[in-house]
Specification:
It contains eleven helices and 13 strands. With about 350 residues, the chain is an alpha/beta fold. The longest helix has 20 residues.
Length: about 350
């Protein structure tokens, strides 16, 4: 079986990619910034049901440094470049997230090209497609790109957009035959790995903990992390995936209040603190005047962004779970691990 490098092995999406690759019989190498993390990452993967841990190896490499990448990709047939800084909300300067995302992607691509890797699958995000646009009834597809300075755009969205554009430019001008496919998931929920809550699972955790006074009038397109990982494997192996972007979404965006209702319906007493109230738009707008972290959501109040997953279904044969399954899986794992109060 081919050997696959997965960058950022301690991450949420990367961990699920590793589990599925090993279950499919692949040999897997993953990067961590320090090999001191190997034992803890192995423990998390083992707890999550890792098959054939002997087929998993580790390499030390950091997105901000050249050292270690040549060794990490050596002998690999494919690379899943999943690692990228995640920082939602305001930052002091965009470069805090833009530079590591863009330069890290280019480091991985250069190393993959020089090692004669066949294909790189890069994890981008819906933030590189559907942000910064004026309101409309438009259904977003892979042909769309986010507007860097449009309404609702933030540093994280710019980092994903600029990193992905840089990756496509590199392959076109310097790739020397290296194939690239990109995966653009919407809000990712699903079973927590270890004790770390990341991505959209934070919203589930805060709802269960009673940390929200109510739900803003916002809509969230959702996809299960297990389906995101499956899309990576399909994009790696499907001949027609080369040179393509894949928007990974499983249906209409859901109102935040509907997500709360799903939690109350399925979690019983564990959902006792989940709010049922929807906050008036005027209240959210007033709070945003004083709380900087609320400003980026104001442009999206009442705006249900629609997405199409037709390309992933037709080219990859990708079949996602219902959004409700991702919501319940995320919440159940948070409760079972005792992470509600974190």
């Amino acid at each position: 079986m081919p050997q696959v490098l997965v960058t950022g092995g301690s991450g949420f999406i990367a961990g699920h990619c590793i589990l599925q690759l090993l279950a499919a019989g692949h040999r897997v190498r993953t990067t961590v910034r320090s090999l001191a993390r190997e034992s803890s990452v192995r423990a998390v993967l083992t707890e999550a049901g890792m098959a054939d841990g002997d087929a998993l190896s580790f390499a030390a490499a950091d997105l901000m440094h050249d050292a270690g990448w040549a060794e990490a990709v050596a002998g690999c047939d494919y690379v899943l470049h999943v690692a990228s800084p995640v920082h939602l909300g305001p930052v002091r300067h965009d470069d805090e997230v833009v530079v590591p995302a863009r330069e890290g992607a280019l480091r991985v691509l250069r190393a993959a090209r020089d090692a004669r890797v066949k294909r790189v699958v890069l994890t981008s995000a819906f933030h590189a497609v559907g942000y910064g646009h004026p309101r409309s009834g438009h259904t977003f597809t892979e042909d769309d790109w986010s507007m860097l300075d449009g309404p609702g755009m933030d540093a994280y969205g710019r980092s994903k957009t600029l990193a992905e554009r840089a990756a496509w430019d590199f392959v076109a001008t310097e790739g020397r035959g290296l194939e690239l496919a990109t995966i653009l998931p919407v809000a990712v929920m699903g079973p927590v790995m270890g004790d770390e809550i990341t991505g959209a699972n934070h919203f589930i955790q805060r709802s269960l903990a009673g940390a929200l006074p109510g739900y803003a009038n916002l809509y969230l397109p959702i996809v299960d992390v297990r389906d995101v990982a499956a899309a990576h494997l399909l994009a790696m192996e499907t001949p027609g995936a080369a040179g393509r972007r894949f928007l990974i979404s499983n249906g209409p965006a859901l109102p935040l209040a509907h997500i709360g209702a799903v939690l109350r319906k399925n979690l019983g007493d564990a959902a006792a603190k989940v709010p049922a109230r929807v906050l008036p738009d005027i209240m959210v707008r007033l709070v945003s005047v004083f709380a900087r972290e609320f400003r980026s959501i104001v442009p999206d109040l009442g705006n249900a962004k629609q997405t199409s997953n037709a390309r992933a279904r037709s080219i990859l044969g990708w079949q996602p779970r219902p959004a409700e399954e991702a919501i319940v899986a995320a919440a159940s794992s948070i409760v079972q691990k005792g992470l509600v109060s974190r």
